[in-house]
Amino acid sequence: MTGMSFTEFYSETEVLAAVPRLTPLRLSGFIEARIVLPLTKDNRAAFRRIDLARIELLCDLTEEFELDDDGLGLVLSLVDQLHEARRDLRAICAALAIEPPEVRARIGGRLAAV
User: Fold this and answer.
1) 58 and 76 Cβ atoms separated by less than 8 Å
2) What does the alpha-carbon distance between residue 11 and residue 107 come to, in Å, rounded to a whole number?
3) How far, in Å, CA of 77 to CA of 58, rounded?
4) CA-closest candidate to residue 36, choices 59, 63, 65, 20
5) pTM
6) Alpha carbon distance 7, 49 (integer Å)
7) Which of 34, 47, 80, 94 could form an S-S bond across to 51 if both were Cys, CB 3.0 to 4.6 Å?
8) Residues 16, 24: contact at Cβ < 8 Å?
9) What torsion do the CA atoms of 5, 77, 86, 92 make, to the nearest 10 degrees?
10) What is the rounded radius of gyration, in angstroms, for the C-alpha atoms of the chain?
11) pLDDT digit string (tens) for 21-80?
């Protein structure tokens, strides 16, 4: 499967079409505030699927909670930290799943005591 890319990129025009609530000015603001960090592909901004999800969330937070760029940055930083903690927890669970039953039982007992 060499040469195949599983990452789908979207142009600014495609992002604006995919997120109807998004205006070019708002998107520029998100980028300037470094809340959304598109990649550069062929000298143009290239957005990933995760960027689309972040932009949708940013629009929700802007419209429903009237957060400014600093507030948006803080909320997304916390969301990123939560995703990282969940990823770490999944890795720990996967590592524990391959341990012998007595090790899992001992760790489970210690966790229950905390």
Assistant:
1) yes
2) 48
3) 12
4) 59
5) 0.73
6) 8
7) 47
8) yes
9) 90
10) 20
11) 999 999 999 999 999 999 998 899 999 999 999 999 999 999 999 898 899 999 999 999
Domains of the chain with CATH codes: 12-113 (1.10.1660)
Euclidean distance between CA atoms 30 and 38, whole angstroms = 10
Residue type, 49: R
Residue 42: its H or E element: none
33-40: long-range pairs with CB below 8 Å, 24+: 33/69, 33/72, 33/73, 34/73, 35/69, 35/72, 35/73, 35/76, 39/9
Compute the 3-state secondary structure of the chain and give helix, strand, coil in percent, each to the nearest 5: 65, 5, 25
